[in-house]
Amino acid sequence: MTDGDVAAIIAVSDFHMTVGRDPRTGLVDRRESFDHDAAFARFLAAMREQAAADGRPWRLLILGDLFDFLRVGDAISGDVADQPDNSERAALAKLERIAAGHGVAFAALGAFAAAGCPIDLVAGNHDIELTRPAVQARLRDLIGRAAGDTAAGRLIRVHPWIFSVPGLLYAEHGQQYHDLNSFPALLRSSAGGPGAPIEPPLGSFWETYRIGLAQSLAGAHEVKPRGVLRMLGRSTVVAGAARRHLTFAGHLVRDLAGRRSRRQAARRAAYRRQVLADHADAIGLPLRTLGRIDQTAEAAARALPGRIVRSLLGARIPRRRGRARSAAEPVPYLARAALTIHHLLQADGLDVPYYLFGHTHRADQRPLLGGSDSPQYLNTGSWGDASRAASSGAGVFPYVQIRPASAGAPAVASLLVWTDDEERQRPLRAADDAAD
């Protein structure tokens, strides 16, 4: 099937599924962000109906962090380890637990694929384990089994970094341009064998560190960044979690020291020569262009030490009285990255009208340049924010819909929401954006 056979592309991201509900108690796991399986199933059923009305399949694009492997704890104790374990063995075990807790969502995905609608999953920083071929194979099997149609897995593809449709769409999760979560060798695990290592970014160690501190507080959901600083001043907590503090401090020092080192620059250059070349054709971009996009990600990662210093200094400099904040809304960093990528693609005659990302949990649509024909930046927002459903009753969930050009009509991209209480879609409103 080619993308010309697809009537529409619908894109979602950032569900952050963990282990769902405990089958014995019916309670949602304390680290679960996604308790919307039934809403998601109704959404996909409605999309299947629209595809049938169009007479052509719709493509589902999941732009990263469908799962949250970092938050899946031990099967016996439920606790998360001190540092990320993204080995193949651990990833397969975690995927089984996620599937067991989200059977309705897995079945809905399988039914969507069984209806002839392809599904593309892009790996995010919380489910980077999807880059492992064995994990991909098991995911297809679990989705097919949940839907009662093992053949459904044939229409499910996993993309370790970039999903693109020539002339229409460039998409990725977006963590590569977030200094804390950028992977220095993102594609290495998918290029290697079962034992190929995944080098986690500092953000993954930060996540397990915060979860570990929460576990020290008798099962708290999580410790917010500012809460970590408050906890460091409480001697009883510091004494009880000294090992966690020292472990993370070691990762922090090594990471920051290596970001601008010659050794790291040489490793990144070797990665571009040895690994990116094998993926360029699969992604559909020239190696030169892909290498320049990776250099953009590298530049973002190198900015973290300076950002930390500025943040610490800024916390010590009080704001002058009467000094007004800038009225201009800052451009999101992913929109800036999208503009850079647009210029790189444009230089090779490969630019597209739509640049789509997830990761930030902020649904958004804005022009990258001036003029009515400007390429657009879109963000799918998040389905994994449990507070949204609690505040709005049945839930309002964002997604992007892109209809390719057909029969003389131009391509159109829309930022929409699924309102589950009414079981219908509508345009995103300012109030929805505030909730997101």
Q: Would you report the number of β strands?
A: 12
Question: In sequence order, what are the helices and strands, one letter per element?
Answer: EHEHHEHEEEHHHHHHHHHEEEHEEEH
Shape: globular
Give the biggest sheet: 7 strands, mixed
What would you call the structural class?
alpha/beta
What ranges have pLDDT less than 50 throughout 5 or more consecutive residues? Answer: 322-326, 386-393
In short:
The protein has 436 residues and is an alpha/beta fold.
Structural overview:
This protein is of the alpha/beta class and 436 residues long. The protein has one domain. The protein has 15 helices and twelve strands. Helix 6 (202-216) runs antiparallel to helix 9 (242-258) and helix 10 crosses helix 11 (287-302).
Helices and strands in order:
Blueprint: E1 8-12, H1 37-54, E2 58-63, H2 88-101, H3 103-114, E3 119-122, H4 133-147, E4 156-159, E5 162-165, E6 169-172, H5 188-191, H6 202-216, H7 225-232, H8 235-240, H9 242-258, H10 262-283, H11 287-302, H12 304-316, H13 333-347, E7 354-357, E8 364-367, E9 376-379, H14 386-392, E10 396-403, E11 412-419, E12 424-427, H15 430-435
Parallel strand pairs: 1-2, 2-3, 3-4, 6-7, 7-9
Antiparallel strand pairs: 1-10, 5-6, 8-9, 10-11, 11-12
Helix pairs in contact: 1-3, 2-4, 3-4, 6-9, 10-11, 11-13
